[in-house]
Amino acid sequence: MMHPLSLGGSDLHVTPICLGTMTFGEQVAEADAHAILDAAVERGVNFIDTAEMYAVPAREATFGATEAIIGRWLAARPGMRQRIVLASKVAGPARNMPWIRAGSGMTAQDIVASCEASLRRLQTDVIDLYQIHWPERHAPAFGQLYYDPAKETSQTSIHAQLQALDSLVRAGKVRHIGLSNETPWGVLEFVRLAQQHGLPRVVSVQNPYCLVNRSWDNAMDESCHRLGVSLLAYSPLGFGLLTGKYDQHAPHEAGAPQDGRIARYESVRAQRWGRPEALAAARRYNQLARDHGLTPVQLALAFCYRSWRVASTILGVTSLAQLHDDLDAWSVQLAPELLAEIDAIRWQMRDPAQ
């Protein structure tokens, strides 16, 4: 049974499994999305995560669609809003998505305007956890490995971002704030400035965490543990690599299942999840699962579910069957010997989807 826990010492009590929604409005039709939301809540999940830029892959035609789908779900179910913790995100700099906002930055005014637009789409008065989707400053993310100071284009200081978020908290439109795709320095600076100026303190960071990407374990784990900032782990199945469905055929090959994002969308394959090294490592973990009488999904999810580093694991599903399989994996426990074998594979193959 899942017991809610406090995010970063805040008054937000969330289940250790969160329903991610970025497929809603692209791979998942609205009626199916509502059925998935209903089933997740029925199974005890109280934490729903979305973002203004969703659905994914990001397109002008589907910008904001996911929030609108959730908003109509809430509107049709009186009392549901009080039962869930609702999280959303403001997109960072445009990243070649001019439909999100004019200009290439993320100003304080952009933060406020994006939040107010999200509130309208979600048909709610308050967002429980409002997160910055990726840093406003230049920082390695989404498969970039190295920080390059020559690429710095920051226009809005972290202090100014916090002041904008503070205005939303004071107005009652946001309860708590968080980050996503952040670095140790970024988390520390947000916390330091909040303490120095009496501004809202981040309670969580939403970063990738899975068997083929444990970059969190290199400095972010200690930093956030000592600062009291919770990890929301996304992509626990490595965009499908850790389900085993690509063990026989790579996503781009004939014979591979075409229902997953990495197979359907070339833009996804071009990122970290599409690296041959990531698939090779995933196949090692998937075979390890079978050797121990588990499915690849059970191994990958149990690794996240039971890690002391993870407060809540974000599931992105496209069907009710997938949702139930992922939730059923909550009961799986990994023996210390199996965890040691996982670490041994990581020692050899490191984090190929970083």
Automatic annotation (TrEMBL):
Top-level taxon of the source organism: Bacteria
Q: What is this protein's record name? A: Predicted oxidoreductase
Is-annotated flag, keyword Disulfide bond?
A: no
Q: Which UniProt keywords apply?
A: Oxidoreductase
Q: Which residues form the NADP-dependent oxidoreductase domain?
A: 16-345
Q: Where is the signal peptide?
A: none
**Pfam families this protein is in?**
Aldo_ket_red (PF00248)
UniProt keyword annotation of Oxidoreductase present:
yes
Q: Name one GO molecular function term.
A: oxidoreductase activity
Q: Which organism is it from?
A: Oryzisolibacter propanilivorax
The record's section on SUPFAM superfamilies has: NAD(P)-linked oxidoreductase
